[in-house]
Queue: 4 jobs
Job 1
Amino acid sequence: MKQTTLLLLFSFLVSSISIGQNITVSGILQDGSLSPVSGVTVSAMNASTVTDATGFFKLEVQTAEKAFDVNFSSEGVLSFTKNVKTKGQQQVSLGVVYFKAPKEAVDENETSVPSAKDVITGEDRIPTITLSGGEEESELGSQNISGILSASRDPFIAAAAFNLSSGGFDIRGFRSETTVLFNGMPFNNLERGSVFWSTWGGMNDVTRNRESAIDLSASSNTFGGIGGYTTFDIRASKQRKQKRVSYLFSNRSYNGRVMATYSTGMRPDGWAFTFLGSKRWAEEGYVPGTFYDAYSYFASVDRKLGDDHLLGLTLLGAPIERGSQGAAIQHANDLAGTNFYNPNWGWQTNSEGKKVKRNARVVKSHQPMAILRHDWKINERSNLSTSVGYLFGNYGRTRIDWFNAPDPRADYYRKLPVYAETANNFPERANVLTDLYSQNPDLLQLQWDAFYEGNTSHGRSWESQSGNWSQILLARERSDGSRLNGSSTYENIVSDHFTLNAGMTWQIEKTHYFKTAEDLLGGDYFLNIDAFALRDGLPLEVAQFNTNNSRIIVREGDKYGWDYDINGRKIGSWLQGQFSFNKVDLFVAGNMATTDFWRTGYFRNGRFPNNSFGDSQKQDFANFGAKAGLTFKFDGRNYIYFNAAAMNRAPTLRNVYVSPRNRDELTPGLTEEKVTSWEMGYQHRSPRLKARATVYKTQIDDRIRFNRFFFENAGSNNFGAFILSGLDEQHAGIELAFQANLTTTLSASGAASFSDNVFTSRADGFFVFDGDGESNSGELQALGTIYTDGFVIPNSPQTALSFGLNYRSPKFWSLSATVNYFDRTYIDFSPIRRTAEGVFGLGDDPDLYNATINQVNVFNEDRTGFKIDHFTVDLFANKSFRISHDMFFSLTGGVTNLLNATIIQGGYEQLRSNPKDVVASLKNNNPDATDIKYDPNKDPFAPRYFYAYGTNFFLMGALRF
């Protein structure tokens, strides 16, 4: 701390030094249709130039100032002024500057687009983000880097966000490695290290002002993650002055969206206000049985306090309720006649006697956030920004729960024809079931009326308790979080060649996990006891979920099962120096952080009375990181860069405890993750061409991975988990991207990713039930070595390509077409099949050995049993109109997957899947057959897949005035 203070004091002293030098300012001037604007005078200080036929300009300014105005004039009339901050650099590229015609030169009868803000941006393309029903992380709406970075001008990021995301593509194979900031405040949670994009869903108009990077480059706001950073500036003073209303129609997750925005900009009296409200809805989305009901609200106010201080407050929230999609095996999809078979819904007779669709997996969430930010301009060279934010609210999802009843799930394996045919050798029964489902497809869905009938007519009660004991109910699993964040960021342009950045962050986080009885489905009560424990013959006092409370009767709204907090605290600091010279730029940065966490239990679990109630022991981690980068500037257009980083970091909170629902036992092998990463590349930037080629490699060691499951026949029917400890990952590959202006109206763009994202170690495997029925010990069972070395990190294509053409007419309309290609998408794997025991006895059958051990590539028809497509085609168009002097209307439309290609985004092997058992059953059923091989279409525990949408579209109209 003393060294940091001395360095800051030294920076203040040096900041008074000014050295005059030549500053080269360049850019490209375009109008609202993105056509080049020529003949415009560009001037600053005593220098001036004129834009050429391509709109390009280059201005040499001699000044010692770190900020100055560049004026753009047409026919002697000042059109607009742009403030330029050099940040110690001698070459400043403004990129594309959008020309604003002087009011005197505007013909109000002409159809026109005034500036780039009126051109449809990435947010209005609403790139599809399909949430997988097979991944709990996706159910939570967690971070997907492609969706977060959708406004970037980098051609690779733009392709990943708009086109490749529909194929499940994750940049560099990362899903939650990007640091995200709102108004300078870190937004990543400690539980998973990710963000929940749904927190700001439906706020497109106010989240356009962002800065993004996917690499290890320097940032003035954060140390950054190995997946880069994204900073959102949503302050009212940074919003464009406008009134805007829009309506969107779509056939995706929601069918309609209406949005209204009002923003004053910074007023002469020093106040700035922005307000937004929106609603998104669908009675039924693209996937049957899903619905969508969401609102969004946003309010921000900024106040200038003199010339050097700005104080701002921002409030936002996005309450949402939606029905979820579930992943299914292909056999169930084929029975239903659609790859979007959704086992989460069924028909229910309402009070009016009408059949209505009801979804059992409903997500309901509202997590509002408030951010207070203060900006202090200390002098012309240095500034200090401080943010404090608080996020709170609720998140919950429902699911079917049951006690002593047949498994009520719609796609339960015993209900499927493939089980009758393969496992039980009843082909006649399989044929009967197939015909039954074909004639009565509703039988493939949840039977809500039967649930009500069973709960009210079975006549079961608990001891002397009156009323009906529900054997099936709808539970809501809650994870209500609260988070207090703070950050302070300092920047000092010490000299023309050196800029100092420093910051501190702190975070206090608590997530309250509990389960409630949402709907007893016609019954009167449920029990707060462990049904599995009773089945295992354990006494009642052991089977109780909460022995501190003798009352075990659960009514609607009551808690049962589990009730606990996961607490985390993190304090960090970082320091960065950026050096800029004529031919070389470089930076060096370092950070340090301390993290501690603990569990607080509110139930004393009967199986684990000594480590389930109260505060657990606190776990502490101290972590450090460093990164550096070097850029060689051959000229103003060609660059070579190299960045590298090394760090360790605390594990995420969700991987700390073996079974946090009932005890505080730590995961074996719990330690810091170790990360090393490097990247190098070439970049070209010129008026007609932007291109980038990057080679990268990241190594992450000592990761922990959980596979949670319900196991039915392990001697102790129970929930449990497979734990992989000491798991190492490598993310390596090549990224290519370009954007070329072929003519003044036609441009081409492309992106390609060739990656090798794999696990590079043999993990240690552990198996644990929530409780052990025989010993009541709940001890971990070692599985030994899990042969994960060489397995692909799942559910993102290792090869992804995109190529597009974009035509922009001088008449203010545009049309673009893009072709995308995907390959080498591997699904998640079952650890138990990758053990020595899992392949025991298979040495004489290489086909069966390979079917058991090899990971499934969804593009390999021999492994899946069916064929999917590699290519998709997307279209996008927009037209803009000027209605009056300050009123504009835009019409935008897009079609994704125009050719209705069949694309799998990912999937997972079921933990009970065992090709050896399938082959044994097939041989038993066909004793005369001599060449029987594993067939996934005959496996009742075949992998579950989730598909990208088929042909889908949106159409939006927006009015700005």
Note: The CA atoms of residues 735 and 753 lie 5 Å apart.
Job 2
Amino acid sequence: MTLAQMQARFFELKGKLAVGQISEQDFKHELEKLRFQDSHGRWWMIGAQSGRWYYYDGARWLLGDPPDPGAPGLQAGAAISDQAASSQATPAYSSAQPTLSNPTPYNSQTISAPYSYVPAQQSPQQPAPPTPKNGAPANYIAPAAQPVRPTAPPPPPTAPRPPLPPAAAQAANQAQNKQTFSNTLRQDLNKVHLPHVEMPNLHIPPQLLPHAPTQIRKYQPPFILLGAVVVGLLLVALLWLAVDNLVPGKPITSFFGGQTATRPTVVRQTPSVQGGQNVENLLRVGDELAAKSQFEPAIAQYQAAAKYAPNEADVYTHWARALALTGRIGEAITTAQKATRLDPTSSSAMTELTRALAWAGQTEPAISAGQKAVSLDKENATAHAFLAEAYLRAGRPADAQQEVDTALELDDTNPETHRAAGWVAILSKRNDDGVGEWNRTIELAPDSFLYHYELGLVYANYLNDPEMAIPAFQRAIQLYPPYIPSYTALGRAYLAANQPGPAILQFQKALTLDPNSSDAFLGLGQAFQLQQKCPQAIPYFQKALELNQQLAAASKGLEDCGAIAKGSAQPQPAPTEVNIAPIATAIPKGTVAPIAGNTNSTSPTTTPATVAVGTTGPGRIYFPVYDGQYRIYSANPDGSDRQLVTELASSPSVNNDGSQMLFYSWDGNGRGVHRIETNGADDTHISLRAEDTLPSWSPDGAKYVYATRAGQGGDINKRAFTVRVASTGGRPRQDPAPLVEQAQYPSWGPTNRIVFRDCGFPSDTCGLAIVSADGGGKKTLVNLNATAPAWSPDGTRIVFMSNARGNWDLYAVSADGGSPELLTDDLGNDGLPTFSPDGSKIAFVSNRNGVWSVYQIDPDGENEVKLFDLEGDIAGTIPGNSPAQPGQTWLEQRISWR
């Protein structure tokens, strides 16, 4: 059995264990059969959890590279002969990455980052090692012993020589006696044992490990003379530097005139760290590692830099980029936000925030950040490239093309500009141009796994060429093995190429990294089905459905295999347009996916996060979701029973008994405030202007208060918001008179008072104020920059959002005034709060971890939990609308709990 066959057998066993076809005991028993002993006596085995190779050094299991047998005659448990390799000057067990020139059908590389390997050390013949606990080696331990040089192979046997003449025989005997004496002396010296000194187990970079002894050079007399001259010059330099001390009161400049003093040198101070290194060196090393897709050690460099320079924005900019490239988008967003807070003028920091927001699917915030990055530095080609990507995600290809053209003009050697140009070309059906741009991208950054992965997606999903996609995915895996989507994408490419065997191996590898990957279970089922092995396929389809009940392809597979009745499978969705980068989470479940376009891949369905029964308040939560258009949904507080209330709608406000809802309608024939039954019936347009927005019910339900820019004429950007009151019964004949001038975001409370944002323009900085229902008795409530106020059911407290600390957090204040109380403190943006009907909880939205979700918290700020994901964005622009049109940012939205 070859190493590739042993690894394939491991993944086969792992897959059977995952679906319950074999027991844990059987798995361990079969895993024991995959041990082998090499020619140096080392025992090797595959880790039961990691799928990596380990060898036993007599005391511990160490991570390493097993020797290549070279010929396929190996049996499990037999020694692997590697004498040919041992004859080389370098160790046979190198950590070099496998090449893709002739990939094997089963892709025999191990699932481990090449940069984390330590070459295996040769050791004498050893007995069988102990079985590690749980059938798997312990965590990787760097070898502490000093490396042993490889032993040369024994010389080949020679034929008998003819007898020598007497004189030659005598000379040979003398030489043999001399050699015998030398050997005896060496053996005697070897009996002298020096005391053993235990060295500290330090990590030594591979480039610093000793290899072969360096030959001592004998320098000629001219070089000796040159050395003496150099030493003399050094002594003169030292004397020159010491003049100030040798001659009191006489500065060094007086010896050489005044010119030296008139040319001061300004040196940029860089925060220094221990060991003589500085932050710039740490960033440089981190960037070099990241360029090779070695992100974990790169992030370690950035973390070290942040430790010594915690207020340097540039440190967090580099860090955010590495986090985004590993798929840890939520962390990337918060890290980039910190960089922008530390230096609001940094175009680079704003660019990384643009990247992270775009890859999280937050297109409008990404566009805003990208525009800001470009305004800070119009020569920043990377900023133009990611702004183009944000435009492309938002369905604005013309704007994207313009930004790409600018980026290419600014820097034609930047891989990010060519990547963006590649996506624009592919989605414009200019396939040859797109492939050319990707090849140029990879030429400029050959060791970035993401570019190879995305090129594979282009071939697989857009050009229908799985044969070209396969090597691209293989290269991505080789460069960055922890990235799960590379394995599932490679498996699907093999399926499309009618190669189910290699596909099975890739899906099994994905399961090793993520045992709950429904995509991997689905792929395994489809691969076995393609092999006409329905009995093996059925449990994988069942497991995929258990993990994701909306996986129509798994139901179809069960139906085709006869496991369920014909016609009972739910219909498969038609190919839809997917986002360039669906919501990504932390490794190993990260996903950085392609730009929007038609694809045959199954769109993932998010399972709402839930909390324990009894921890939520009563009623239902009403919330908007934006996915190119607005829709309003309702759900139980735990996320169950999610229902669509109405289309083309946002900013819901539900009356006290939960029977009716006011909202802003985006219907082109009736924009403005509408009233509707919460079951979706009886939609009625009740406002006069398209600018009327953010309605809020009066306590008796007869009226509503709203904000508007209408009735002022001229440019909408120059109109201030006013707060007005109208009847919920129907449309007025003329605009109601303003209740409050220069006011936004009103909320009508149970005590018949109205709280609002006390300024007229969205860009203004202002607090909250309260008036009575007739507009009198205005009182300032909060001086912090604040918005989105909401009343408690008893009318005693008001919860609101403020960015006084940099990002948006929740605060609460007494309705009679006082000091605001901070309720949330997270690097994400928390906002749009609303009380539960009984006042026991507060619901709000947040984009923590790059995903917009609904959370709840107690009124005192305790017991914060996530309720469910929105499964989309909270806000976005509507094509054809002026940016000044109300309701297109998340700060102009509302959620309601009734």
Note: Residues 3-135 form one domain.
Job 3
Amino acid sequence: MNFERLGRRGLLLAACATSVFAAPAFAQQQATTAQDDQPVEEIIVTATRRETALQNVAVAVTAIGAQAIESAGVKDIRDLTQLAPSLQVPVSENSGAVTARIRGIGTQGSNPGLESSVGVVVDGVFRARNGVAFGDLGEIRAIEVLRGPQGTLFGRNTSAGLINVTTKKPSFEFGTSGDATFGNYGLGGLGLGITGPLIEDKLAGRLYVTARARDGYMNVNNGTARTDSNDTNYYAIRGQLLYTPSETFDARLIVDQASRAEACCAAAVWTKDVRVPSTTDILNKISPNALQTSRNLDSYLASANRTYDQDIEDAGVSLEMNWDVGFGKLTSLTAKRNWKRTAGADSDYSGADVVYSLKSEGAGSEFDNFTQEFRYAGSLGKLDWLVGTIYSKETINSTVRFRTGTDYQAYIGGLLGPALALANPALAVNPLSPTVTNTQLAGVVSTWQSILGVTPANIGTLAAGGGQFDDYEQNAESVALFTHNIYQFNDDFSVTLGLRYTSEEKKFKGSYKTQGNTACTAIENRLGLDAARNAGSLAAVVGAICAPWMRSGLDGMDHRQEKSEKEWSGIFSAAYRFAPNINTYASYSRGYKAGGFNLDRAFSDLQNNVVTSIISPGVGNRTVRQPNTSFAPETVDAYEVGLKTQWFNRALTANFAAYHQTFENFQLNTFTGISFVVTSVPEVVSQGVEFDYVLRTPIEGLSITGGAAYSMTEYTKNLGSASQANTFLGQNPNLYWLPGGQLTSSPVWTYGSALNYERSVLSDTAKFKAYGDFRTITDTITGSNLDPRKTQPGYTLINARLALSTADDRWTVELWGRNLTDERYAQITFDSPLQGDAPALTNQPALGGFAPRVVNSQINAFVGEPRTYGMTLRWNY
């Protein structure tokens, strides 16, 4: 860990925070804590854009208060999984590739053209993607995990659910709080928050600053030495002003900025390529000790010859104003946000220099978002009404810089060497022969060009430093009108009706450039720009030399597309109270997730009845047209019933929900080992039951919370066949495992529980606190193509925290541990680039048609964090 950098940041941020509130602090006669925390006896949620008691809201909600968040050590949305059974948050190739899943539904991968199925809202402001919302959440007042479509009030990209985060507001009483954390893997963290009045009863402020650093837990083998990856290194600052000039008006201004400079994310071998020779054998022949020869998940061992480095800059400003205009309350919420990630990576996940990207060349993506929302809410007799409108504008820039390394041609030659025997046994090259050199392996590419008919004068190379240099831009504008109304027929029965109309336009622009591909160019000159299609039995050979990042068919194209969508979403629910503490509800809701464009290189159309090549099949014909890379919006029809109960003078709260959801055009992003495929699955069905409880035991100071979720989230069985070109499998033969399969990272069962205990000690001068939680999930398939080899067996994660505080909680010292049993598990698995054949259906006449080809791809895994432990000192005045 870089203590010097953390120290400078921490001191600078602390100095800034202290200076802002120095004068108001001295004016206070007595320090008090912030006033935001809700009392334990009644949990208030804002799931309907109104403050409502949790037990009275007709929505399935997991509400997490400030105390529970602190006890569980929640810093970002990934940590919420221990407290919300229906939530999964796996992370894949970078910190921007965070996927939140609720009830098994989420949008996998880091393709920026795909919007999220689970929305994240922080203080009313929608974050563009789950990965954009990843980061330190600051001084949290409460978090609500809303299950099921939430589009009526929260927007188009909440078809599976919503994570609603509210932070603490400025207080008109002075208060300060902070924490210092140290732990294994060189963890060090500082945080400081200060709040207080700037103008008495008129203007208050709050400032929160934090910095955190930790060494990486992945041991990276780079051939001759090891280093670490998957570290933590960030700082964040968040300032607020609250203006209350009168009882009828208030305004809240929030400005925040965060920066991350981290190495993320290395991957370990999950399943080895078992061929002889295997891709591991060839890589180790080209570059000694390039890749481990066995599964190495337990040792957190990865391989790379280049760093997984990334920089993330995140900044935003929002202004919320509320007017009490007599007949209702008018709210205006204006927000502007920018998020940018630049990253470099060893894209072959080995110690050989095969393919990579460089952060210095600007590879990455950027989101620029502006939103303006108006809401007008009030009541008229038995009607509680709300109407509103929102305008949003989003610009995405995605930069792809994918280069080939110095070992690239030798590696491709090693893969194709044994296959020379198909053409001429005398030409066969054994890539593992001790006498074969890298130069000879590289020469295999030239030999294959000759076999394909390329004349000696035109023989080309796969030059180091060549590859794919693409730039994509997507601009989106949307306007929505919405209303959400609750009619209270009597004290026990109410009906809710909500509607939202969304109009959206998106424009896409792409430019393509390929360089260093003279070997592929020579083959394209011979066989056409769609060379593999015209290579007959040698299609696999041509496909290896002319991989997607080496094909020139799109070069120089001014690729532009536009699409527009107009969609209705909404909710109808009825709630009935059978007894003072027994409430039921039933609801129907329709959700909508916007379509868009695949911001990656594509050589075929999407969403057509037939997937068609964009390149004329003829050898001499050079006609190339623009691909249609658009994909359809995702919609869902959801039905839900719920029961919310409290027993024994509210000592026990027990809530139940059952649901059935049907998704159409479910958006899926899949990595095949050589490229990402974006497609829409015709139908996905998610159905299940959920249970959660809070028990305040007769033992003073002891409470237990927990829950369980059963979720069958499956692709429908009827997805066509590979022989029918106008069906899903006809267009996506690599996804033949999908029909009837449980979705990625979607366990059928999830269980969790947390225990919280507090008692006075040392003659009531101090308090002892103990907290522990566990979360158990059943087997899951962690790859989006549902390859059974990617199954992660069920596992349990256990966390604990012991604390001793002063009686007034002004000082607390904590000992904590996460993943105490040091469980080793995969978050996401994937087919290693260029390392074997991933699952696909191919036409095999000897078998009577399409059948699965032999699958021998090596699989890598992004591994969950190991056991961590440490100590935290907190203060609160």
Note: The longest helix spans residues 3-20.
Job 4
Amino acid sequence: MKNLILVCAAILSFAAPAPTISAHAFDRTIEDVREDAEGGDAQSQYDLGVYYQEGQILPRSYFEAAKWYQRAADQGYAEAYNNLGVLYQNGLGVRRDAAKAAENYRLAAEAGNDMGQANLGGMYLGGMGIEQDYALALEWSQKAAEQGQPLALHNLGYMHQEGLGIPKDTQAAFGYYKQAAEAGYAQSQFNLAVLFHYGTGVDQSFEEAAVWYEKAAEKGVPAAKNNLGVLYRNGTGVPADHVKAFELYDEAANLGYALAWQNVAAAYLNGTGVDKDLGAAFRAYTEGAKLGLAEAQYRLGEMYSLGNGVRQDKRRAATWYKKAAAQNHASAKNDLAALYLNGDGIDQDIETAVKLFEEAAALDHVSAFYNLGIVWSNGYGVTANQHQARSWFLQAARAGHIAAQYEVGLKEAEAGNTDAAIEWYTKASENGHGNATYNLGVMYHFGSGVEQDLPKARAYYEKGLQAGHALSINNLGHMYMQGQGVEKDIGKAKELFLSIADSGNTQALYNLGHISETGLDGNQDFASALKWYEKAARLGNKDSQFRAAVFFYNGAGTEKNFVRALYWFKQAALQGHLEGIYNTGHMYDAGLGVPVDNQEAVKWFLKAAEQNYLLALVNLGVYYQNGSGVEQDHTKAFDYTKRAADLGHPQAMHNLGYFYESGVGTPVNFQGAKTWYEQAASTGNANSMLRLGWVYESDETATDHWIAAMKWYLLASQQGAEVPPERVNTVKQALTGPDIDLAYGMAEAYWVENFKAQACAGAACSFAPKLNLLKPIAQQGNAS
């Protein structure tokens, strides 16, 4: 049972009043007793005091009792000294005065009164109204015990049990308690029960414990009622009876016993022996908390924090946590620290949070170990230190903290310690930690640090499926969708994705969109795909945001809507989606869904360029070359264009060739121009072929530059470029017929090797540039 409290400490007794009446008092009327008392008879004065104290024969009046006890005491009446001491000790009819109580007990004790001796021993034992002195406590208690005084026997038992003034001796303690208990002394009956309960100084016996708890409970000892309730709850020493247990807790609680309120609250909280009632649990915790019980104060704070049985109120939770923490309650310190850390219900104070976590950890609070791991891992109030974090997580993990076991697994995985990671993930998984199970599945699925093992991955994902772990279910669905480690089954994959779609798993929503978009299930449906993508997009899935943007851009499954396309491109971009970043720039560049804004376009292209996104590099080269949206900067234009060219972009290769040819952002370099134009030309770029013709035509240093120029003009024409006739004529004039034939053959061979298969696509076609290659015939004159 949650929060069950069992009292295990012995009770120390002081000052039992036990007033007695002389035998001859019963032979006289009250008038006779009063007359004799007023006449100075000490016995009658004492008896009259008893009448007033007990309130049975005369109306109760502690004031009158004290007056008559004092008169009897003034005449040396021992019992009167004792009872007067009781009144002073408890403030009944007189001002509370422990010193006067002790003095009266002394007078009674020295006169041989066993009760006075017992009470004087108790005062020395507790240091009440007199300097604490275990030796004198022992001496006076022994004198009283020799007369069979139960209180003295009890206190001797307590002294032997705790080793106060004498060596600790639990067997001797048991003997003294047993004598007092058999004499009917309730507190000894309780303490004897505790010894039987725990097997202290005697063989453990729940049955005997129950017997003595019952006797003490019948005499109204609240702790005995509480502990007897625990035995009934657990069925130890008595038949299990939850209803009886609750009744006993309730009786003890209503006698003002704080620990019993805790058990009453727990019974209501769990519905054990009584109908579950969170409101009643809250009220019971409140009673215990008011009586200063730290555990009740903590539980009350917990209920306020969780809104369990009461309206959630973090501020009040903090108030009760503080009260319990002030009593060194470890869980209260830990939970209060969490409120300070998050500024939840109280002003955020990370320094205090860390201090409280450390105090709770010093009390071996396992969750505090874990929380200190979080503190050091994230650098909350301290400089982040992963070694320290791992140390705290490890301490918690070894104590069985499941989340800590998972965190240790993470730390080991990050450090590349695969075997250790698997060990801790496995422990956490066996304890029901969903993410640990999922991570094991991922490791075996993708061969992360281990040899890929798809059956193992599937087994872990299926374990996650049984626990309803969305990430595991999604990955299992992905295995069915791809046919990885299982027979490909799109229907099963779709079923798995649908099972977690309503829970907001965005990856499953994305996968459902992908199935509808691609028609993997035999039913391509763009409208349905867009529905799934938008649902995931609204939940923040950046891949789905990008796909939704593409659908609106292309009008797939919906009408074209550039405004919506821009919105989703930008949402994806804000989460770092690279294509989303570029396309946001593209929308501003092209004025789609928004007025043209070159500066905004450049901003997004620059973000994409940071990750070497090819089209962004190309566009930035153009923007810096033309000074569009940025200050013209040929050097930057050259740099961005070269980065794009190095990554293989045909137009960037062409542009870079032009930069080398024209000296834009770099010195003129015909060889560099040729190199990049040729790379662009190899991709079929007709303009690059045309520029190569011109570069070779102009470069008189190159061997056979006219033949090379003709070759590239022919290829440019074949690829659809308009070659200026004057360029062709200039080259023809520089070539012989065989040279032209050679250039033609070179061009045709290049075309066949690089472009014919693609150009003809299996049909008959040939190299047929639209250039006039005939040389003009020289005019012949007639002799005159």
Note: The first helix runs from residue 30 to 38.
